[in-house]
Design goal:
homodimer, 203 residues, mainly alpha, Arc Repressor Mutant, subunit A, Tetracycline Repressor, domain 2, 2 domains, 9 helices, 70% helix, elongated, DNA-binding
Chain lengths: 203, 203
DNA sequence: CTCTCATGTGCACGCCGCATACATCCTAAG
DNA sequence: CTTAGGATGTATGCGGCGTGCACATGAGAG
């Protein structure tokens, strides 16, 4: 292992990340403490501080990893969605990811956390750009910025409401059906964004 | 003061709630500790336990209050929205509430919190029913359930993305314009929900 | 071989949630 | 009026947490 440090522990940085992920999945965000991470990594309580400035930095690192996984998951649902159906599949994958990794998803989005975490902003910018790119490709004439923001918000909101148990998440099929319906509806409205863009240009 | 206890402190229950709200606004959810609440209320550290089973119970109470305030805020934007414009105004009020009370909004929605808090579920059910009622009145022929869920998710998602700084929240006008555009687009798609309802009924 | 610096340890401090035992004081029954 | 009882708040203590600081350790440079 040439790149990252291989001193006493081997690769404590990665070990902490892995331990944090595990704790998050097992005990929720409440169980994610620096000390618990250290214990799980078989290391003293303060050792992680050599790799993460504070608890927030660790959480941010986990969140950033989550963003990358989410991106992969979306790409796995469909590499280059173009039709509304394909886009809906990606949307379903988004919500599914949130439901499959609730604590991680919350760490990614629901934490106060100052926006001063390069890793985080870069990762979220990547997702944002990803969505925009899809929309641009699928709806060339539309105001991609506005439409992609809207669809992201819609899907994101669905994910959160499901997470909070405010929607029927009893079966994966129910979730998928609802998300699909909503996304299709929004795409049926895509001319509105085209109009908006045209209007703006005409001003 | 006949209803709630007026013993030693006067009304510690309400005082705790108020203190918690203040701490939330000042220091964010991180600063909301039972001990801090007790200090602010001028009472011993464990006194709040006489009125709240644990920290979660207090937070839930604050959240429930937040739900009521949100409902009032929405009603203040428009008492009985019927046109898309009026509905968009309510949506803007929703997002504005989130941006004006970020920590409270997060406490309301972004906390893990078991769903075993009557006060909370009642309050969120009220909001959900409120939105559904509006949609039913404004779009009589549509599948109110599906359409209201979708619009709630859209607005909720916009609120969260703005909260997380993922959207341009620099000016209130920018936020309002974006929310308005998105909501209008969705309403233009409302026939899709009508179709969905009709299809389902026809089955 | 030694110097040096990254890496990990030990310890201490103050904060936290919460359990338990105790003090206080309203309220109501006799 | 007295007194028993229960509601309310206090005192104390336990274990856990984040984190700053001094110290030990060991890998690689000279």
């Amino acid at each position: 292992m040439p790149p990252t440090g291989t001193y006493h522990h081997g690769d404590l940085r990665a070990a902490c990340l892995r331990a944090a992920r595990e704790l998050l999945e097992e005990d929720g965000s409440a169980g994610l403490s620096l000390r618990a991470v250290a214990r799980r990594a078989g290391v003293s309580a303060t050792a992680p501080y050599r790799h993460y400035a504070d608890r927030d930095a660790l959480v941010s690192a986990v969140a950033a990893e989550g963003y990358r996984e989410l991106a992969g998951h979306l790409a796995g649902a469909h590499p280059a969605p173009a039709t509304p159906d394909e886009l809906a599949a990606v949307a379903v994958a988004y919500v599914r990811f949130a439901l499959d990794h609730p604590a991680l998803f919350r760490a990614m989005f629901a934490e106060p956390c100052d926006p001063t975490s390069e890793e985080r902003v870069a990762a979220t910018a990547a997702i944002s750009e990803y969505v925009r790119g899809i929309v641009r490709a699928a709806f060339p004439g539309s105001d991609a910025e506005a439409l992609s923001t809207t669809i992201w918000a819609l899907v994101h909101g669905l994910a959160f409401l499901h997470l909070d148990g405010k929607l029927d998440s009893s079966t994966p099929e129910a979730v998928a059906a609802q998300v699909t319906t909503a996304v299709h509806a929004l795409f049926q409205a895509s001319p509105a964004f085209r109009t908006a863009a045209a209007t703006r240009t005409a001003d």
